[in-house]
TrEMBL record:
Domain of life: Eukaryota
A Gene Ontology BP annotation from the UniProt entry: positive regulation of canonical NF-kappaB signal transduction
The keyword Metal-binding is assigned to this record: yes
Biological source species: Austrofundulus limnaeus (Annual killifish)
Listed name of the protein: TNF receptor-associated factor 2 isoform X2
Amino acid sequence: MGFWGTKMAQEPSPSSLDGNKPGFPKKILANNLEDKHLCNSCQKILRRPLQAQCGHRFCSFCFNKIVSSGPQKCSACIKEDLFEDPTSILKQGGG
Ligand SMILES: [Zn+2]
Ligand SMILES: [Zn+2]
């Protein structure tokens, strides 16, 4: 009488876990890829896009991950602040 241990089979269910992932890889949409199609967190193509209060978009997975530890400053907003640095050394001087 052999003893057969129970084997844990890990079968990913096709649809229920769909929102539990970051974005799609960019290669599936190589053409016409614009920033608005990309998640500001994982930098991939938005999966179940969510718009944050600031207007930036994230995958629902990424957004939930970000806010799970409390209110966060949006990484895209931080990036844009850098580009709008008022004390830029490229400031034009008057002659
Ligand atoms: Zn994402
Ligand atoms: Zn933002």
